[in-house]
Amino acid sequence: MSFKIFIDCDGVILDTWKLIYSKYQEVYNTKELNDPKLVKVMEDLGWNKIINESEIINDSIKKIKKLSKRYDVTIVTKVVQEGEKEEKEVFFKKKGLDNVVFVNYVDRKTDHVLVKGNILIDDTVRNLDEWNEKGGIPIYFNRYMDNKDGYGNENTKYKMIDDIDKIYDTIELLERGK
């Protein structure tokens, strides 16, 4: 069976949300997310700082390179504002990862890549729901094995992994046709 693997960036490869959310709580003193305020925090921090000060989750860059030797792997990431795409491009190029698709924040990932029969590893349930609706194979990523994503949506139906290496179990099942 031939399939592609798409991997989200923020919250799966890079823990950008830790820095952004921490600053958001500091500025607005609330846990409730408001998109315009969130965008303002990102703008104030700047994407160079966000990208370069964010932790690489579970050595994911190395694991993606290993996965890419055997499978067709693409990073698919939404971009919220000017400068984010450029900073992510520089970051991934420095890390030796060139297969990246950038999606405008208001668009759906499913409108920019081939979904049917392909895997998406993402930390946002809404993205996985859209992927599932289009015939893709959604995998929920949460490094803390928490069923709630950053937006408070609960994962009740998708396989959960906390490390990119755990995708091999799913791949094995797909290759055996199950």
How many beta-strand runs? Answer: 6
Helical percentage: 25-40%
> What sort of overall outline do the alpha carbons produce when their principal axes are compared?
globular
Strand order of the largest sheet: 3-2-1-4-5-6
Global structural class = alpha/beta
In short:
The chain is an alpha/beta fold. The protein has 7 helices and 6 strands; from the N terminus they run E-H-H-H-H-E-H-E-E-H-E-E-H.
Description:
With 178 residues, the chain is α/β, with parallel strands linked by helices. Helix content is 39%, strand content 16%. The protein is built from seven helices and six strands. The protein has helices spanning 16-28, 35-45, 47-53, 60-68, 84-94, 125-133, 167-175; strands spanning 4-7, 72-79, 100-104, 119-122, 137-141, 159-161. It has a six-stranded parallel sheet, sandwiched between helices. The longest helix is centred in the N-terminal third of the chain and has 13 residues, at 16-28. It is globular and about 50 Å long. The termini are close together. 29% of the residues are buried. The model has no long low-confidence stretch (mean pLDDT 94).
Keywords, separated by commas or semicolons:
178 residues, alpha/beta, 6-stranded parallel β-sheet, 6 strands, 39% helix
What's the helix and strand layout?
Elements lengths: L3 E4 L8 H13 L6 H11 L1 H7 L6 H9 L3 E8 L4 H11 L5 E5 L14 E4 L2 H9 L3 E5 L17 E3 L5 H9 L3
Parallel strand pairs: 1-2, 1-4, 2-3, 4-5, 5-6
Helix pairs in contact: 1-2, 3-5
